[in-house]
Amino acid sequence: xxxxxxxxxxxxxxxxxxxxxxxxxxxxxxxxxxxxxxxxxxxxxxxxxxxxxxxxxxxxxxxxxxxxxxxxxxxxxxxxxxxxxxxxxxxxxxxxxxxxxxxxxxxxxxxxxxxxxxxxxxxxxxxxxxxxxxxxxxxxxxxxxxxxxxxxxxxxxxxxxxxxxxxxxxxxxxxxxxxxxxxxxxxxxxxxxxxxxxxxxxxxxxxxxxxxxxxxxxxxxxxxxxxxxxxxxxxxxxxxxxxxxxxxxxxxxxxxxxxxxxxxxxxxxxxxxxxxxxxxxxxxxxxxxxxxxxxxxxxxxxxxxxxxxxxxxxxxxxx
Length: 319
Description:
The protein is of the alpha+beta class. It contains eleven helices and nine strands. It has helices at 56-63, 113-125, 130-142, 144-147, 163-181, 187-196, 201-204, 218-222, 225-240, 244-256, 272-294; strands spanning 14-28, 34-42, 45-51, 70-80, 83-93, 205-206, 215-216, 302-306, 312-315. The chain has a five-stranded mixed beta barrel with strand order 1-2-3-5-4. Strands 6-7 form a two-stranded antiparallel sheet. A two-stranded antiparallel sheet has the order 8-9.
């Protein structure tokens, strides 16, 4: 059974235990020798892992390891530039006799997927705008099965079982409150943007039923979920007879919610609901990353650097 979890690993530990493979690649170092570069995970988090100086005899077994596999490693915990990583000396696939519990390896959102889905759909049913209600309900009902497990990312925020639903639900909750403060906002339009802004991650990202992503689809790599989302909304609005202005506003919300060209948005938001959508998205992503990082930190201490947060080291308060 599993005994050592990512959250509990300390520098200079030596151990043997099981982990799930999140990423894997064979690389060539500056010494021209091959090494194995992996991200390993369990239900408490992820950690970088290396196996140095791979011999030709080891390559066949290593090449059989795939993303999503459970493996057993003998490793030591080291630090590199202030971040913990594993130095692996031995590795093998897990087998049925190891008596493993799947829940030990797959991180999931802290809320039940069925409950999150029902919350989101319930809010959609409250829309006063019948066209936005029909559009959002149709897309969510068609994708219900995959929404139950899909992550919101391959490796960044909400990269977990049910992560996409969790991201959308929390954004909806914040969006409703924003509309009570900024009364010029159309609540239906803003929440429709929340519901639809990342929906094409279902087709951008590949995922197994545990919410583990091995990478991106061909279409996802070539276009990305912003362009895919615009195409989806354009086609569905035409099918439902939704007018030009409303269609373009929804398309613009999807296209602009990353805000900057370097993050994929060719236009910045040009109306209030689109601007608010961006900030709801970025706040939820950063709060997730902060919560995730600080879960591994003792009160009164600073954690490891978080590259998604501009490489900051976060402090966990003691009260």
